[in-house]
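During the practical work, I worked with a single protein chain and the tokens that describe its fold, as given directly below.
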Amino acid sequence: MSELIKIEIVTPLELLKSKETKMSVLPGSEGELGIMNRHTPLMTLLNRGIIKLFDENNSVTDQIAVDGGVADVSEEGITVLSERAEVLGSNASNKQIINEKINALNIKLKKPEFHEDETLKNEIDFLNFVLEKSN
């Protein structure tokens, strides 16, 4: 029997990550949750935070920033649904892409029709969180 569990991280725009891991640590609303194979089924709300994926050697292989959401843990695996999610990376190109997204959103926010758009403001706030966690 495999000791791995599949996790899928889904946003309204894409399936951001689909991977088998030894353990996934999620930013639950009541604290961090470590989920491994054969975990009791549950459904929980997530806070803004970092999902950490671990391999068989207990090393972090991936980190994904999520802006809250819902996690469903079942026999089939873990499904995370989040309005916004970004793969964290410490390389310069990843930070440049995030900065370009922030700049584009700030330009859009300056237009009169978008000046009070809370969705844009929330997106910028989340991307700044991603940049902060990428360091």
